Amino acid sequence: MPALAPAVTSLLVVDAQRGFTDLCPDELPVPGGAAIVPAVNRLLALPFARVDATQDWHPPDHRSFHGRADDLYPPHCVAGTPGADFLPGLHADRFHAVWRKGYDPDFEAYAVTAQHPGFAAFLRASGIRAVVVCGIATNICCFFAARDLRAAGFEVWLAEDASAGIDIPAAGLLQAAAKAEGQALGVRYASVGEVAAALGAGQKSRA
């Protein structure tokens, strides 16, 4: 069993927001999106060195919305609306920081690293060497964050049962393809139980 040392491992909760669930059916609901809350909360109870979250925070005229430049998605997670709120029951009080993204109307930022280029350097300066990613959507914002963090030299795990994905063929965003690419890059796809066991093994190895 691989080990994760809690003192150098962080958790990244990606876009666990109402607008990506059937709580806001007219936005961009991802199948099973709201159902990830218990699994994410189990992760939040684990001994990570820090916990970061991302939050889509779009203006009403964002370029990705229908009728705009990219014309890919219905309006979703618009700043200050219920769709932009974190999911009910999510233990968001455990977040050390919330990194908003997608707030520039002319710039699409799937990953926190796209909106905040210094994010990886910030984690490194905080002593982080490994990152566990979870949230919505597995094959979009979670995948791009995992990919970029892996490229920056971090060990990256993606907690599949604390995430939810959706195929969007028009945008070339497919779950199977994203997982295959992630695995090829060295991202470890795992369950919450496996993450917990790895953190436990990491604690024992330090004892």
From TrEMBL:
- EC code(s) of this entry: 3.5.1.19
Q: What are the GO MF terms of this UniProt record?
A: metal ion binding; nicotinamidase activity
Which Pfam families does its entry note?
Answer: Isochorismatase
Has the keyword Endoplasmic reticulum been applied to this entry?
A: no
Q: Where does the Isochorismatase-like domain lie?
A: 10-167
Cite the InterPro entries for this sequence: Isochorismatase-like_dom, Isochorismatase-like_sf, Isochorismatase_Nicotinamidase
Q: What keywords would UniProt list here?
A: Hydrolase, Metal-binding, Pyridine nucleotide biosynthesis
Instruction: Note the superkingdom of the native organism.
Output: Bacteria
Pathway participation: Cofactor biosynthesis; nicotinate biosynthesis; nicotinate from nicotinamide: step 1/1
The answer, when asked if Metal-binding is one of the entry's keywords, is yes
Family of the protein in this entry: Belongs to the isochorismatase family.
GO biological process terms on file = pyridine nucleotide biosynthetic process
Q: What class of enzyme is it?
A: hydrolase
Origin organism is: Urbifossiella limnaea
Question: What is this protein identified as?
Answer: nicotinamidase
The organism that produces this protein has a lineage beginning with: Bacteria, Pseudomonadati, Planctomycetota, Planctomycetia, Gemmatales
